[in-house]
TrEMBL record:
NCBIfam families: PRK07231.1. Transmembrane segments: none annotated. This is Glucose 1-dehydrogenase. Coiled coil: none annotated. Belongs to the short-chain dehydrogenases/reductases (SDR) family. InterPro entries: NAD(P)-bd_dom_sf (IPR036291), Sc_DH/Rdtase_CS (IPR020904), SDR_fam (IPR002347). GO terms for molecular function: glucose 1-dehydrogenase [NAD(P)+] activity. Keywords: Oxidoreductase. It is an enzyme of class 1 (oxidoreductase). Its EC number is 1.1.1.47. Signal peptide: none annotated.
Length: 249
C-alpha cells in the first residue's frame, strides 16, 4: 500500500525545482497534491500532468504565500478539491546574493516576506484545516545557515529563521499531534540555479569541492526525504532539521 494513500498535501512553490520534485514524489506515494505556484502556471500544470499521468491526483493552485488572502484561498481550493489537508510543504522561497553595500530594503522585505512570513501564514492556515488526527509540516531551509556564505546575509537570515520556527512550532503544536520538521538542502541543480548562472561558475566548483559526495544535488535527491517526513515512518520525529547536501555543511 502507498505510504501516503488517502492523504492530501499542499506544496508551495511547486512549479519547478525542489518543490516540483517533492510534489511528484508525494503523488507517487499516494497523496493527492496541490501544486501551488506564484507566477508559472505552465510549470505547475506540467507537474500536475506528470502526477496524473501516473494515476495520481493533483491540481494547480495560484497564490502568493506572503499574502494572507492568497493563502486562505489556497486552502479553500484544496478543501473544495480534496476535502481537507494533511501535509504542508513550505517550499516557496526566493534568494539574491548581495554584498552588504548592495542590500536594499526592498530585497530584504521580498525575501523575508516570502521565506519567513509565507511559512508562518501557510502554517497558521494549515493548522485550522488539519483534522483531529493532526498534521504534518515540512519546512525547506538551507545548508546556507551553517555555511555562512559571504554575500548571502539576507537569504541565510531567512533560512535561519525558518529553522528556528520549526523548532518552536514543533513544541507549540506537538500537543495537537502536528509534527514540524525541516529539510536543509545543500547545492541543488534547479532551474533557478541555472538561471542565476551558478552552473559552471567558480561558486559551483567551490560547493562541489566542499561536498563529500562530490556533486550538486538534484531535486530527486530531496524528494524522498520529504516523503519520509510526511509518512508514518518518521512518526517519532518533530522539531528536527535533516541536512540533505551530500555532506555539505
Amino acid at each position: 500500500m502507498s505510504k501516503l494513500a488517502g492523504k492530501v498535501a499542499i506544496v508551495t512553490g511547486a512549479s519547478k525545482g525542489i518543490g516540483a520534485g517533492i510534489a511528484k514524489a508525494l503523488g507517487e506515494a499516494g497523496a493527492a497534491v496541490v501544486v501551488n505556484y506564484a507566477s508559472s502556471r505552465e510549470g505547475a500544470d506540467r507537474v500536475v500532468a506528470e502526477i496524473t499521468a501516473k494515476g495520481g491526483k493533483a491540481i494547480a493552485a495560484h497564490g502568493d504565500v506572503s499574502k494572507s488572502a492568497d493563502v486562505k484561498r489556497l486552502f479553500a481550493e484544496t478543501k473544495e478539491a480534496f476535502g481537507g489537508v494533511d501535509i504542508l510543504v513550505n517550499n516557496a522561497g526566493v534568494y539574491q546574493f548581495q554584498a552588504l553595500e548592495e542590500i536594499t530594503e526592498e530585497e530584504f522585505h521580498r525575501e523575508f516576506n516570502i521565506n519567513v512570513l509565507g511559512t508562518l501564514l501557510t502554517t497558521q492556515e494549515a493548522v485550522k484545516h488539519f483534522g483531529p488526527e493532526g498534521g504534518n509540516v515540512i519546512n525547506i531551509a538551507s545548508t546556507a545557515v551553517t555555511m555562512n556564505l559571504p554575500t548571502a546575509t539576507v537569504y541565510t537570515a531567512t533560512k535561519a529563521a525558518v529553522t528556528s520556527i520549526t523548532q518552536i512550532l514543533a513544541k507549540e503544536l506537538g500537543p495537537r499531534n502536528i509534527r514540524v520538521n525541516t529539510i536543509s538542502p545543500g547545492g541543488v541543480e534547479t532551474e533557478g540555479v541555472i538561471a542565476a548562472g551558478i552552473i559552471g561558475s567558480d561558486f559551483e566548483k567551490q560547493m562541489v569541492s566542499q561536498t563529500p559526495l562530490g556533486r550538486l544535488g538534484q531535486p530527486g535527491d530531496i524528494a524522498p526525504i520529504a516523503v519520509f517526513l510526511a509518512s508514518k515512518d518518521s512518526g517519532w520525529l518533530t522539531g528536527e532539521t535533516l541536512y540533505a547536501g551530500g555532506g555539505l555543511k
